[in-house]
Amino acid sequence: MNYRATALALLAALMLNGCVLHIGRDGDHVDDQYDSVHAQETRNREAISRLALGSSLDQVRSQFGDPDFTEASLVDGHEIRVLRYRTHRTHSDGDTTRDETTPLVFEDSKLVGIGERAAAEAMRAGG
Fold first, then answer.
1. 17, 39, 87, 95: which one has the fewest Cβ atoms less than 10 Å from its Cβ?
2. Could you read off the pLDDT of 60-88 as tens digits, one per residue?
C-alpha cells in the first residue's frame, strides 16, 4: 500500500509540474508574438522614413507586403490609393486598428504622400 501511495503522489506531482510548464510556454508564446509585432512595427517605421516620393506602388508592396488597410478612389481620372501599414501600438488588444498605422498615398501608382495629413487631403479631394 505504501508503494502505491508513493507512486500516485509522484504521478500527481509530475502531472502538476507539466501543467506549470505548459502554462509558462503559453506565456512565452504571447511574449514572442508581442516581440514579433513590435519588431515589425519598428521595421515599418524605419523603412517608411527612407521611402522616396515617386516610388512605385509595386516597389512599396514588394518591400512591405500586403497592407493592413487599403482605400482607393478615382479623382479627375487619377487613381488615388492609400495603403496603411502598422507602425505603432495604441491598444494592447492584439488587433491592428487604423490609428495604429501610417498611410502611404499613391496617385497613379506613384507615392505622393506619407502620413495622416496626406491621406486626409487625398481622400477629401476624392470625396
1. 95
2. 999 999 999 999 999 899 999 999 999 98
- Write out the E strands in 7-117: 69-75, 78-86, 101-107, 110-114
Question: And the C-alpha cell for 99?
Answer: 490609428
CA distances from 97 to 36, 71, 119 (A): 17, 14, 16
Radius of gyration for the chain, computed over Cα atoms and rounded to the nearest angstrom: 24
Secondary element (H or E) of residue 61: helix 57-64
Other CB atoms within a 10 A radius of the CB of residue 44 amount to: 20
Banded pLDDT at 122 (limits 50, 70, 90) = confident
Domains of the chain (ranges, CATH numbers): 2-126 (3.30.1450.10)
More confident: 2 or 122 = 122
Segment 92-112 mean pLDDT = 88
How many other CB atoms are there within 10 angstroms of residue 113's CB atom?
19
